[in-house]
Task: structure prediction
Amino acid sequence: MSATSCNHAKEADRFTADRPRVQWHDQALWFVRAKRDAAAHAVEEWEQLRETASQIKRHTLARLPEYLEQFEENALRLGAQVHWARDADEHNRIVLRILQQHGVHKLVKSKSMLTEECHLNPFLEQHGIEVVDTDLGERIVQLRDQPPSHIVLPAIHIKKEEVGQLFHQCLGTESGATDPKYLTEAARGHLREKFLEAQAGLSGVNFAVAETGGVIVCTNEGNADLGTSLPRLHIACVGIEKIVPRAADLAVFLRLLARSATGQPITTYTSHFHGPIPGGELHIVLVDNGRSRIRADRQFWESLKCIRCGACLNTCPVYRRSGGYSYQHTIPGPIGSVLGPLQDAKKNYSLPYACSLCGSCTDVCPVKVPLHHQLLTWRGEIVRRGLLPWRKWLEMKVVSWVLRNRRRYQWSGKLAGWAVRWTPRWMLYNRLNDWGKSRELPEFPRKSFRELYRNRNGRNQ
Amino acid sequence: MQVGLFIPCYIDQLFPDVGMATVEVLEKLGVQVDFPIEQTCCGQPMANTGCIEDTRPLAERFLAIFRDYPYVVCPSGSCVSMVRHHYEAYLAGRPGFEELKRKTMELCEFLVQVLGIDRIDARFPHRVGLHNSCHGHRELRLGAASELVIRPYNKVRKLLESVDGIQLTELERPDECCGFGGTFAVNEQAVSTLMGLDRLQDHQQAGSEVITAADMSCLMHLDGLIRRNGKSLRVMHVAQIFAGRPLSGSPLATSLAK
Result:
């Protein structure tokens, strides 16, 4: 194992050490999953919507170059300026250049996982630009100097008491205050000033419509609307997989997105940006950053269908109990465990194994990304590329050798049973016995099924 | 009707009574059961680790051993799913493989779909919680997954409901994973344990005396946690309930005690 790789199980240990917090985290996310279930079950044609959404995404990805060009043409026609970024670095430089050309030193941002992926904030800050995240959860993690731990609920791992303490230190709220309404009001006041001071607003994009050239941003706080209406300059950063062909397709995706994400029928604000505001500028930055490579990947291209709703995180029994940071990747949970190794297989080799293959993510996904199948496929790739720790690799070689021959298998079973029965408990439950750390081993019987079956048939004959 | 009995390796070695109960249930319904002795393991531990080349010979052995049976029946949804959904990578195009996929069935599925059974002649006067093991539930679709917006059904539960005297409990999370997940249980020991403990908690609040499932591997993990934590819950495979086994102290004890 290389020093640069992340081991999810080890990282998870930090989070699981605090049992009450794990329980709280699990229940908070399960509450969202339950809300999602209620919202989905209220839509009779839910499964038909999922299938349609999947088909639209498959179609769009197959013809992505055409749709991107169509989008650019229409966006230009609406008066927007369109930029193409090959990777994170180019994306960051484009954004910086636009800001510098406009003399911007204060920027407000609404939620964008793409800019997290590109590590835009630290880059801009290095160049003397103040960046303020205006989504409440994003602002909380920003003040704590942390990345988001969830793609839709960035501060889900932080308790309201901790937010109270943070706001007391950073925003001067009363010491010991925990009332969410009071704390939210305080954040609102603080952010209002930032909105008024800002010279530019940057937003992510949920959907970019090829036939209109419009971009659609969904938020619950209206922060994207304020951040892009007060300043004259709006920069919208879009991953190239966010394209949908027609405005009518939004009728499918908008019904699925909020219900899957938070169990709401629709987000409070669904804003359609068609060109710049009067007297202002709209810059759309289309970002590849590995997406073309994924698109060409025979095994994993369907992961590009993802609309970042976070439903797979909420339903994942591992994510709920290991926390977002245990993944050590911008996007955690099942979809992050597929995308992580696509970005860096060596660093993220353990993520596809941070999964019990329960399949809940696959069934909850509104665009039918076959998530747990992709995680299993990744495991095969990890082994093929020689990235699995050698001990595990060797274990499987030995087990396979034993199982390929009936007699070897039977004798190994006898030997294991004998060893478990006769080894003293303190030796059997040693520190290498990961099963036994928290569980009793099964009681090895003296006779296997095949022996009982043979004896019985022997008697019968 | 003749079936080839496919007994997963860990049931053969660790839970022989689950195998015996399966035989008894099938024979009582007039099925002629044959256990081909050459079988070992379907290869799932290797496949789920990603060791494709170490799985291939086991998939090939499986096909050779079972290809001539009209049906292959197994008391494990997970191992059946391995054959039906994951052997493609190793056996696609091999003679007999398409038929093998069609005729390899989990026990409850075989009882309901092939034998057309909707009543089990057994008595089990206890409060029972059904654990919907994931691979049977979401890959074989033995029941409607809670994520999907489809008409509710559950083949395992339906059979259990027909058992005389049984009371099935209602869980808060009816199909959440127990955290076994094969090698996941040891690779991610801490998370796996927390998942299991949460399942036990759910069964306790629902008043289950016994946790049952169509997969013994989940129950092995849960039983390990029950015994370590001194809980009063017990585990039994559905085949053991169907075969009329009394409530047992340990899932493997019954036939051995005889």
Summary: Residues 1 and 150 of chain B are 33 Å apart (CA to CA). Strands of chain B lie at 2-5, 32-34, 71-74, 104-106, 127-130, 167-168, 210-213, 234-237. Chain B has 15 helices and eight strands.
